[in-house]
TrEMBL record:
Residues 530-608 form the AMP-binding enzyme C-terminal domain. Catalyzes the conversion of acetate into acetyl-CoA (AcCoA), an essential intermediate at the junction of anabolic and catabolic pathways. AcsA undergoes a two-step reaction. In the first half reaction, AcsA combines acetate with ATP to form acetyl-adenylate (AcAMP) intermediate. In the second half reaction, it can then transfer the acetyl group from AcAMP to the sulfhydryl group of CoA, forming the product AcCoA. Keywords: Acetylation, ATP-binding, Ligase, Magnesium, Metal-binding, Nucleotide-binding. One of its GO terms (biological process) is acetyl-CoA biosynthetic process from acetate. It comes from Aliidiomarina minuta. Mg(2+) binds at residues 536, 538, 541. PANTHER family: ACETYL-COENZYME A SYNTHETASE. This is Acetyl-coenzyme A synthetase. The lineage of its organism: Bacteria, Pseudomonadati, Pseudomonadota, Gammaproteobacteria, Alteromonadales. It is an enzyme of class 6 (ligase). GO terms for cellular component: cytosol. Its cofactor is Mg(2+). ATP binds at residues 386-388, 410-415, 499, 514, 525.
Length: 647
């Protein structure tokens, strides 16, 4: 589609920060002279010591180095909290909407300061110091943000673990970064049900499985009483009982780490993506302001979870750095029914809603019922993130949720990019349903073919980024070589996203999805290797191969091929047991949709599983299998097709 179908609404055009000419001018400057551009925009953040240096980066695959604002000092928590006290002490920083429709809280910036400083002093009592790692495994409650900010205040590196992960997954992440403390809650609430967070942590640390952990801090969120381990466990409220608000923010260099966030890759164990302080804060606050055209009185709602990068950058750090009122929602879009999102919008007069296509599709499945009895007339801008948004979902979001009044920012980015990379900008561009459109300032996207040749003009290929931007991840925790290998070695001298993309005749960008072995299931990023290793840990499984397949609601579903150990019967009971096993070992978000018994898997003569073929069979596209001549045993393919489920 060359023609823009949806123009930017006229009212927005008159008031917005940008117009097409202004965007182009700023973009051109950001590329032609990044030092001057970022030197100027870096000042949006409060620095204790101003920076003299700006960009110092190289994408050489054997020597990747990424430094921004190197000699400047600052504190991320100070920027999100203290600096707003003179002007915004009584402004609401966080609106919390509980899982239960009757539960809500408003926390002012003054209260945020009090809560964060007291908790930071509590962590100090436990011996937490600059550079220590602290794991956070929390429900969507304000205390999750307090915990992150308290770590940032002390210079401790937080590692938030999504509340849907299972004990083994928690232990892996805690051990990889050698966390000293785990912060959790006795229980979370989602969709009217309890989430056993503390019980999961208990299992993770049981029998000395997490030897570096000295304490587990437990926020009492519900009345449920679970097990208690006097050696480790400390109640949050008891810890801060005698703590005051006197807690100076640690002076951090721009390149001191702010947080680690584990994410899935093509191979191996999850990767501890490391973000540092200065560039990240500049980039997330600037993208937040420009992409959502934030105004002082806005009520802004990003409906993600703090366990993912979207929650870090666009629930906590970006909005709070900008002094915005950010809404945190504990529950799910369909509880108590499908009108919940629309009702929250009306209840809190939300101006900006940022959510994921998977949530949109779940609501769309109920027709227009999701908007029943609501007005949603406070909305000005909508956002989408996490996976490609199909045009039908885009149209529904636009017309039903947005009353056909609000532009949609389809924001493409990744855990590794720290902030939004490609998105329409109000009111710099018109919109095309399904297109991420234009790069943010300082971002230089390009397409390459599989050999790394740069593609010019309208084309499809692998999406790479040619030069560094301030919000970029600096390394993988404890493994810089893997960082270089994963992102900079596929194509020389550029950052490889792992995504495919298309540039249309107008020069606009469309993201087409991962081209590697990373799955995107309901907007959750999962590695096939992680699911496979959970499966082979089961005694009945000899070998497993996991691929994604197109799924109407989830975007991608999980299709598993299992070769059982000799002598084991393949039965429906075993299938059910394996599904349960993966949920327990890894996470319910990794629940397989289909398990197919596979007497053999298609392998090359060197023993590599040919996933391309497995993907085609899973998607029911056996007609276009492509070349199978390099297989060690081509007959395996025939038998897999014969056995395919739902045939
Ligand atoms: C996908 C989430 C298409 C993409 C912020 C990327 C998208 C992965 C979009 C990163 C979008 C994210 N359109 N695809 N607007 N946004 N993706 O690390 O495949 O959880 O590589 O970060 O999500 O997922 P992650």
């Amino acid at each position: 589609m060359a023609q823009a179908k949806y123009p930017m609404p006229a009212e927005l055009k008159n008031e917005a920060r940008l117009d097409p000419a202004k965007y182009q001018e700023m973009y051109n400057q950001s590329i032609a002279d990044p030092d001057t551009f970022w030197s100027q925009h870096g000042k949006r953040i409060t620095w204790f010591t101003p920076y003299g240096q700006v960009k110092n980066t190289q994408f050489d695959k054997d020597n990747v180095k990424i430094e921004w604002f190197r000699d400047g000092t600052l504190n991320a928590c100070y920027n999100c909290v203290d600096r707003h006290l003179p002007e915004r002490a009584d402004k609401t920083a966080i609106i919390w909407e509980g899982d239960d429709v009757d539960e809500q809280k408003h926390i002012t910036y003054r209260e945020l300061h009090e809560q964060v400083t007291r908790f930071a002093n509590g962590l100090k009592k436990l011996g937490v110091k600059k550079g220590h790692r602290v794991a956070i495994y929390m429900p969507m409650v304000p205390e999750a943000a307090y915990a992150m900010l308290a770590c940032a205040r002390l210079g401790a590196i937080h590692s938030v673990i999504f509340g849907g992960f299972s004990p083994n997954a928690i232990a892996d992440r805690v051990n990889d970064c050698e966390a000293k403390v785990i912060i959790t809650a006795n229980e979370g609430r989602r969709g009217g049900k309890g989430v056993p967070l503390k019980a999961n942590v208990d299992k993770a640390v049981a029998k000395g499985a997490c030897p570096t952990v000295d304490n587990v801090v437990v926020f009492k969120h519900t009345d449920t009483q679970g097990d208690w381990n006097d050696d480790l466990d400390v109640w949050w409220h008891e810890l801060i009982g005698d703590c005051d608000t006197d807690c100076p923010a640690e002076v951090m260099f721009a390149e001191d780490p702010l947080f680690i966030l584990y994410t899935s890759g093509s191979t191996g164990t999850p990767k501890g993506v490391l973000h540092s302080t200065g560039g990240y804060m500049v980039y997330v606050s600037m993208t937040h302001e420009y992409v959502f055209d934030i105004r002082e009185d806005d009520i802004y709602w990003c409906a993600a979870d703090v366990g993912w990068i979207t929650g870090h950058s666009y629930i906590v750090y970006g909005p709070l750095a900008n002094g915005t009122t950010t809404l945190m929602f504990e529950g799910v879009p369909t509880y108590p029914d499908e009108t919940r999102i629309a009702k929250i919008i009306d209840k809190h007069k939300v101006n900006i809603l940022y959510t994921a296509p998977t949530a949109i599709r779940a609501l769309m499945a109920k027709g227009d019922a999701a908007a029943r009895g609501t007005k949603r007339d406070s909305l000005r801008i909508l956002g989408s993130v996490g996976e490609p948004i199909n045009p039908e979902a885009w149209e529904w979001y636009h017309s039903v949720i947005g009353n056909s009044q609000c532009p949609i920012m389809d924001t493409f980015w990744q855990t590794e990019t720290g902030g939004i990379m490609i998105s329409p900008l109000p009111a710099a561009s018109d919109m095309k349903p399904g297109a991420a459109m234009t790069p943010f300032f300082g971002v230089r996207p390009a397409l390459v073919d599989n050999e790394g040749n740069h593609l010019e003009g309208a084309s499809s290929g692998n999406l790479v980024i040619l030069d560094s931007w301030p919000g970029q991840a600096r390394t993988l925790w404890g493994d810089h070589e893997r960082f270089e290998q994963t992102y900079f070695s596929t194509y020389d001298g550029v950052y490889f996203t792992g995504d495919g993309a298309r540039i249309d005749e107008d020069g606009d960008l469309w993201i087409t999805g991962r081209v590697d072995d990373v799955l995107n299931v309901s907007g959750h990023r999962l590695g096939t290797a992680e699911i496979e290793s959970a499966l082979v840990a089961h005694e009945a499984v000899a070998e497993a191969a996991v691929v994604g397949f197109p799924h109407d609601l989830k975007g991608q579903g999980i299709y598993v091929y299992v070769t059982v150990v000799d002598g084991v019967d393949t039965s429906d009971e075993l299938r059910a047991e394996l599904i349960k096993w993966v949920r327990q070992e890894l996470s319910p978000i990794a629940t397989p949709d289909h398990i197919q018994w596979a007497p053999g898997l298609p392998k090359t003569r060197s023993g590599k599983i040919m996933r391309r073929i497995l993907r085609k069979i899973a998607a029911n596209e056996h007609e276009s299998l492509g070349d199978t001549s390099t297989l060690a045993d081509p007959s395996v393919v025939e038998s897999l097709i014969d056995n395919r489920l739902n045939k």
